[in-house]
Amino acid sequence: MHNYPANLGHARRAAGSASGHAAGPRCDAHGVAIVIYDGVTAFELGVACDIFGSEWAAMFGVPWYRSFVCGITPGPVTTDSGFQILPAHGLERIRSARTVIVLPTVSFKQVPAEMLDVLLQAHDRGSRIVSLCTGAFALADAGLLDGRRATTHWTECGDLARRHPKVTVDPGVLFVDEGDILTSAGSAASIDLCLHLVRQDYGTEIATRLARQLVVPPQRDGGQAQYIDVPMPELDSSSLFAGTVRWLQEHLDEPITVEDLAARAAMSPRTFARRFLASTGTTPYQWLVHQRVQLAQRLLETSDLPIDTVAEKSGFSTAANLRKHFSRAVHTSPHAYRRTFQDRRAS
Q1: Residue 309: how many CA atoms within 13 Å on its side-chain side?
Q2: Cα 202 versus chain centre, distance
Q3: Exposed/middle/buried for 143, CB within 10 Å: 0-12, 13-18, 19+?
Q4: What are the domain boundaries of the chain?
Q5: Residues 184-226: pLDDT tens digits?
Q6: I need a surface site. Which of 24, 29, 146, 289 has the fewest CB within 10 A?
Q7: The whole model's pTM is what?
Q8: What is the mean predicted confidence (pLDDT) over 294-320?
């Protein structure tokens, strides 16, 4: 991997300004460069080509985007599915595009040096830079996300944050709009971000009509936090708290307190809390809330029980208490979560 200094993009922009060079040619108002290189994922490529394709112009009665699939080097590009694409365009279209789309690849943690140069040059000229899914790693490697909020697929958010500590990584959202830099969460969130761009450029009515044609919601409730599987640490039978945790999981609907759990473990609440944290990496209260939220998720996914009943069966007592803790953990409401996952139950 070619490692650039974190502030390389800022340094180059400063140097260009100091030398008196202009920002470059005027951007094509509706030009969208979809940049590809080996390992590009076919799904996100299809999303970008479909949404920014010219066939929508006649349907919506407006001058639509002019999209160009662009290679950063000459020759064919092999996708993650194994088929090859011969890009019809190259760097010249990226240079004139108003929007540059960066797609994920199977080797997203090893971004070609040429790609980083392309992104820096495009941003210097005033292009809007958009990454889909793990394409955010290319933006971060180029230094374009330093000091900004960003997101990527939830499974890779931790690694992005570790590799680029100057980036504020938000794992709970579907996309982040920082004005000239936009990033999306995993796979299907690419559609959410692309529709957001259409909404910005053409207004809500056309974005909604396009969403109907694609058979997707114009805007999804909540963020990607509702899709994240965050299992609690497993405790083997030799653990001091294994018996307590098993009992807790069987009595989540009861009004249990940390003091109750400490009494079952024959410890003082303070000693119990300290040792529980050392064994599990979380506090007894956080463990209890997490288990109750997970139970509420299962009930919302698999039953038609009223929200009040879900709250009682998961130990939150009231719908208001359930909504408070559920929204903090999952970043959406119980009602919205049930709507999102009702298709899973049907299948």
Answers
A1: 6
A2: 24
A3: buried
A4: 8-224, 242-346
A5: 998 889 999 999 999 999 988 899 889 989 888 776 655 555 4
A6: 29
A7: 0.62
A8: 89
Pick the CATH number of 8-224 from 2.40.10.120, 3.40.50.880, 2.60.120.760, 3.40.50.620: 3.40.50.880
Q: Letter for the amino acid at 20?
A: G
242-346 — its CATH code? 1.10.10.60
Distance between CA atoms of 279 and 203, rounded to whole angstroms?
52
> How is residue 140 written in tokens?
């971060």
| Amino acid of residue 322 | L
Pairing type for strands 66-71 and 28-36 reads parallel
d(CA 168, CA 88): 36
- Which run of H or E residues covers position 328? helix 319-330
- Residue position matching structure tokens 């009231």: 318
Q: Are 129 and 154 in contact (CB under 8 A)?
A: no
Q: Which two tokens stand for residue 290?
A: 């997490």
pLDDT in tens, 65-99: 999 999 998 999 999 999 999 999 999 899 889 99
As a whole number, the mean pLDDT across the chain is 82
CA pair distance 243, 231, nearest whole angstrom: 18
SS3 at position 54: coil
Amino acid 280: pLDDT: 73
CA 298 vs CA 50, 218, 273, 302, 339: distances in Å: 35, 26, 28, 6, 13
Phi, psi of 68 (to 5 degrees): -135, 125
| Count of CB atoms situated within 10 Å of the CB of 54 | 12
d(CA 74, CA 172): 38
- Identify the CA nearest to 194 among candidates 211, 178, 173: 211
CA distances from 81 to 85, 130, 202 (A): 11, 23, 33
Between helix 42-51 and helix 189-202 the angle, nearest 10°, is 20
